């Protein structure tokens, strides 16, 4: 995530704001691998082994360092601050990995480090709305159906009467009532197990 030079937040690219993603200092990149989680367990006196209850995952938190490509002024600082200081989670991704989207907002402290000549970089911490990242929305191709559509007609009482009733009685009012015959093991013991799937007996 941090190896990309550009990033996008709330639909605006960092390069449009005159910023690039950087890493100040030597060493390798560090970023969260998975979200932190808390294990909930119950301990009983006399038993050294706790009983597992559940796992509670925390939202992802990651830090960013980005530098101004050109010397900044007061207006540029305020513009960047308004862009990043949102009151709700906004989509964030790096151009190096656009298929991994985080919904996050500015969290905790933010620091401007500069040399006094209006050149420097900013360190911020972002907090996500969940322990997970998301993929972009994909839309499939448009398929045009040229064949005649399937027409399903309404089932009539005559169509219903052509069927068969298994252990049910059709009353003159049109209602159905369960029959008085209860299936027994003797009714089906002569059948093979493979035939029971389509057996005509109804269990009570």
Short description, anyone?
It comes from Brevibacillus gelatini. With 204 residues, the protein is mainly β. Strands 2-1-7-8-9-6-3 form a 7-stranded antiparallel beta sheet, with no helix packed on it. A two-stranded antiparallel sheet has the order 4-5.
**Principal-axis shape:** elongated
Number of strands: 11
Main sheet summary = 7 strands, antiparallel
- Write down the domain tally: 2
Helix content: under 10%
Distance between the termini: 61 Å
Q: Could you name the ranges where pLDDT drops below 50 across 5 or more consecutive residues? A: none
Q: Please tell me how large the radius of gyration is.
A: 33 Å
Average pLDDT over all residues:
82
Which strands sit side by side, in order, in the main sheet? 2-1-7-8-9-6-3
Structural class: mainly beta
Number of helices: 3
* CATH architecture classification name of the largest domain: Beta Barrel
How are helices and strands ordered from N to C? EEEEEEHEEEHEEH
β content, as a range? 25-35%
Give the CATH level 1 class of the largest domain. Mainly Beta
Within the CATH hierarchy, at the fold level, what is the topology of the largest domain? Elongation Factor Tu (Ef-tu), domain 3
Protein name: Phage tail protein
Organism: Brevibacillus gelatini
Q: How would you explain this protein's 3D organization?
A:
The chain has 3 helices and 11 strands; from the N terminus they run E-E-E-E-E-E-H-E-E-E-H-E-E-H. By secondary structure, it is mainly β. It has 2 domains: 7-128, Elongation Factor Tu (Ef-tu), domain 3, CATH 2.40.30; 144-181, no CATH class. It has a 7-stranded antiparallel beta sheet with strand order 2-1-7-8-9-6-3, with no helix packed on it. Strands 4-5 form a two-stranded antiparallel ribbon. The two termini are 61 Å apart.
């Amino acid at each position: 995530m941090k190896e990309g030079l550009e990033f996008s937040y709330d639909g605006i690219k960092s390069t449009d704001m005159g910023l690039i993603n950087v890493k100040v200092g030597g060493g390798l990149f560090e970023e969260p691998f998975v979200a932190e989680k808390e294990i909930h367990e119950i301990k009983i006196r006399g038993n050294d082994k706790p009983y597992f209850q559940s796992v509670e995952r925390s939202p992802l938190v990651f830090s960013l360092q980005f530098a101004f490509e050109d010397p900044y002024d007061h207006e540029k600082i305020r513009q960047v601050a308004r862009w990043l200081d949102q009151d709700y989670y906004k989509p964030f991704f790096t151009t190096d990995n656009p298929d991994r989207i985080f919904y996050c907002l500015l969290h905790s402290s933010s620091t401007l480090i500069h040399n006094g000549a209006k050149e420097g970089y900013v360190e911020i911490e972002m907090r996500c709305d969940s322990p997970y990242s998301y993929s972009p929305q994909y839309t499939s191709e448009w398929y045009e159906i040229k064949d005649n559509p399937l027409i399903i007609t309404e089932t009539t009482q005559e169509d219903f009467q052509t069927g068969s009733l298994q252990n049910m009685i059709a009353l003159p009012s049109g209602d159905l009532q369960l029959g008085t015959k209860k299936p027994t093991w003797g009714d089906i013991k002569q059948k093979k197990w493979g035939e029971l799937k389509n057996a005509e007996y109804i269990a009570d």
